[in-house]
Amino acid sequence: MDNKDVISVLNDLIETCKDGEKGFRECAEGIKSTQLKSTFSQRALGCAEAARELQEMVRSLGGEPETSSSIAGNLHRRWVDLKSMITGKSDEAILNECERGEDVALKSYREALEKDLPANVRLLVEKQCQGVQRNHDEVKALRNLARAS
């Protein structure tokens, strides 16, 4: 991959992180449980930090880093808002949508890791992918608990 392609992959992941940050913040605002509010707020901060790390990497490669979320992420959040109005914003419904968002993030990271990335970039993307997997697994477990309640 040439430098321009690597920067493009990283900028796509920055959008993914920004989507996650906004998504977790909206979940924190909508969820009733104070424990889940705290969990989602922490996940939003983690996504923001991941975006900063990727932005630094883009700058180190001589590129201009992405600074906003994606159109698809904005559309997903609007869909969540609409669906929440219909379902009454139950914790389970919010957790379902949060898990769906993490599915998209995992897919983005896995696609990035299929590319021929430079070693230092690959290490960062792998580390962040593991964090996305942990977020996904935690959200899924919380959703399963809410579903069982």
TrEMBL record:
Pfam families: DUF2383. Residues 5-115 form the DUF2383 domain. InterPro entries: CHP02284, DUF2383, Ferritin-like, Ferritin-like_SF, UCP029477. NCBIfam families: PA2169 family four-helix-bundle protein. This is DUF2383 domain-containing protein. It comes from Pseudomonas indica.
